[in-house]
Amino acid sequence: MKNSVYITWAKYHAAARYNLANSGLLGCELRDLPVRLDEIELNGQNGEGYGPLKEAIAAKYGAEPDHVVTAPGTSMANFLACATLLERGDEVLIEQPTYEPLLSVARYLGAEVKRFARLFEQGYQPDLDELRRHLSPRTRLIVITSPHNPSGVVMEPATLARIGEMAAEVGAHVLLDEVYRDILFEDAPPSAVRLGPSFIATNSLTKSYGLGGLRCGWILCEPQLAERMRRLTDLFYGHGPMPSDKLSLIAFQHLDQLTARARTLIEPNTRLVHDFLREQADALDCVVPPRSMIVFPRLKRQTDSQPLHDLLRQSETSIVPGKFFETPAHFRLGFAVKTEDVRVGLEHLGRALRMIG
Ligand SMILES: Cc1ncc(COP(=O)(O)O)c(C=O)c1O
């Protein structure tokens, strides 16, 4: 079947009163975006992406608009990058564990998927010698999430730069999904796109700003490649969604306000989660990033987190079982929802951990 096992699961099984399965920021209400109805346009010129929106995205990166491709969410941004670069039989090298749709897209496109490890024991930083061994003249793309989904760990910029050089040696590109980058606030490393022309960076207003409903995603890469991606969009939709792009532009004009909202939610929740992980040290191991909105703890005494998930459902609480990230003993914990919900969800999680022993 042509599908993403994880997205189908998330649609039907992740929602809960105490939702610790959600990896993004609590969704905005209309009042969080200062907008007047007369600022919205239903139709307008949007054949190559809405110009003012592309300018706003480019300005965020200190780039020019011809480096920008707009797309419905990071999901479509990733798809466009992969579909532009991968032909049937090409090799693609994808981190393990990773965000499952990235694997499904590569397989859907008929690429030969190879993997390089991001190990818990190495703080989820890659082993560059191992990565190099998987490269070949047929490698077209290396795929990485940073901050990493599921662990929240940021890949060291020097490591990324080295991966960019290795990719360039075999004529490949590096796709960097940076959808969790903006909640690093002042600690955010430069976007990978600043590291050189082999890099393609994707992002959206979904995870860090709680604006997933706008489906405002984008790609940054060198202009010729960006143009190839825009031509590919002609096969799918041709024109961007004008009302949504207008709202997205307004969001960009109020990014400081939206960032402040994100910080207000994330900072107290981070303290709660870090304290919880310390208290649960005999049940859980975890690589704890200084900043993130997800963590990926490992059960010390069980090999599969599915029973923990099933038990938690009885107290209206959800986590993501590690099997969706090819590491069943782990689970992903998201904590960018209401602080009170995180507090109660963690209480339920602590109780469930005691019950499973
Ligand atoms: C790494 C990663 N990329 C992309 C997405 C999808 O983002 P969007 O809502 O912008 O399509 C997610 C959502 O969980 C994600 O974790």
Describe this entry's structure for a reader:
This protein is an alpha/beta fold and 357 residues long. 39% of the residues lie in helices and 16% in strands. The protein is built from eleven helices and 14 strands. It has helices spanning 5-13, 51-61, 73-85, 100-108, 128-133, 157-169, 223-236, 242-253, 255-279, 306-313, 339-356, and strands at residues 18-19, 68-72, 91-96, 112-117, 139-145, 173-177, 199-204, 216-220, 284-285, 294-295, 298-299, 317-318, 320-321, 331-334. The strands form four sheets. A seven-stranded mixed beta sheet has the order 2-8-7-6-5-3-4, with helices on both faces. Strands 10-14-13 form a three-stranded antiparallel beta sheet, covered by helices on one side. A two-stranded parallel sheet has the order 1-12. α6 links the parallel β5 (139-145) and β6 (173-177). α2 runs parallel beside α8, α9 runs parallel beside α11 (339-356) and α10 (306-313) crosses α11 (339-356). The two termini are 38 Å apart. The mean pLDDT is 97.
Kindly list the characteristics that best describe this protein:
357 residues, alpha/beta, seven-stranded mixed β-sheet, three-stranded antiparallel β-sheet, 11 helices, 14 strands, 39% helix, globular, binds pyridoxal-5'-phosphate
